[in-house]
């Protein structure tokens, strides 16, 4: 990040400050800042470089509205010391301190060192304390003579290594970075980001402001996920303290699609990280008197951190969300090794949970799941939430498929899974039976899927008499008031129709969208992107663009009024999903790519690339034609508006743009087509 400013003092003196700073993507423990000062007159200059142990003793969960209620989304303040100094080194221009945390007993090594470059006379002093260490440079500056201070910082953390060892590691890291210098780090940073943008960039033609905002959102995903190796991705990334650094389902449903298509290594790491929590998930299932494993709704270490079960633990769909992410990753990347290593074990234990949680109705014979909460946190602890039942069915089916596939194709891995999980053949048969009998609520009169068995019996919320100042509802109304109404915090049934879109017709999607959209407050940042995707698919172009803009500007325009607490990382992932799944019309059901673009009228082009089964595909869409180019990998057939298109390395294939009629799902080509394949002509 480069910045430059010129400041004029009240006395008319001018100071020009130029800075460059970075947090290294290549060197995981290092950040650096280069700070240059130039005066237009002789004067003393003092540069104070600090190492600050910010204890956060002041609570940040003060009331978020006029009625005195605290905002549950905000982080709680610490009431005791967090970091306790154990060891330190204070020498020359370097300060390194080793800390241990009070509760978790984790250790931290943090240090800084400096290089001062100037032809002016100067001297330096340093001081150390466990909360504030300083290296202060005093310079007798001459007019026009630059002062350049480069500061290198390093961080090392561990759950098991003593603080003194992390101090030693910090010293070695500082030695290396001081030798390499800032310019070398910046070069490596540029190379990393060049590689990232080659894979992740999305180009929106004729809309420079949209383009800028799109790239800002994508860059947030880059920062949040770059070092997701033995950790998850917090809801706010590393940009703020809201939700206290905890992980939710955001990663699997909203962030993983972007990563799987652009940098699948990170998705793989995230799924392996979920597997590392499996024993804790097994323990949690036992606490709830269920077999298998129940992953925590909110966690940072594998244990459930949500204190409110109705909108936390009751969201059993977290299990199916993780299973869905595994299935999507394997289908997109073709990485069956993940199943043998960790995926199958997760699938077995999550399927067991559904088998134990649900039951066969004595009269209907249908499989029911009661006492759960779906994605909509304004409707809790219900029977047969449609989203949950649909996703649980996918979880059960896929678990059975994977076990049977391993048995036939990877017998060693199959035997290992059987040994580790004590899996019995009749369990797999039961999963299939439960999946086939899964009860999916349906209202024939309205032609929609009720959000749950009793949702349509509730009174509709009085939206007309709810002022804007009373949103989000969770900060202004008691949960019981909200729960007894038809009012939705975020897309629920609509989300199911995006994730499992091959199971519903266009007309079904439209009817459900038309019913639920007016009930959806959008009080969650996870909603607008989903609504935009389905609106685009069913032909509601204006509404799709409106919801996209909400998601796109969620943080840049502070739409929710809480960006101060951190960036909404799930929404940034949702922006990518709207661009590719929504306006790009991309789908990947059953391991095959298909496209039916719906580009906003104000955009001239939409361009992006994907990695799919070892191939790199580049797409360029405009209002007249669609271009597809296979840049890397074996030839592939894709579906474009219902027609099969074959791609090889000869040249880009251009297809006339098509208009999707949402009345009956037919396709109208701009140019006549004699093909009888795909959807029927209008």
Outline the structure in words:
Among the domains are: 2-198, Beta-galactosidase, Chain A, domain 5; 249-523, Glycosyltransferase, CATH 1.50.10. It is an alpha+beta fold and 682 residues long. The protein is 35% helix and 22% strand. Strand 6 and strand 7 (107-118) form a beta hairpin. Helix 7 (337-357) packs parallel to helix 9.
From the helix content, strand content and strand pairing, which structural class follows?
alpha+beta
Shape: globular
What portion of the residues fall into strands of 2 or more residues?
Answer: 15-25%
CATH topology of one domain: Glycosyltransferase
Helical residues, percent: 25-40%
Features:
alpha+beta; Beta-galactosidase, Chain A, domain 5; Glycosyltransferase; globular; disordered C terminus
Quick summary:
The protein has 16 helices and 25 strands. By secondary structure, it is α+β, with helices and mostly antiparallel strands. Helix 3 crosses helix 16, helix 14 (about 530-535) runs antiparallel to helix 15 (about 540-550) and helix 14 (about 530-535) packs parallel to helix 16.
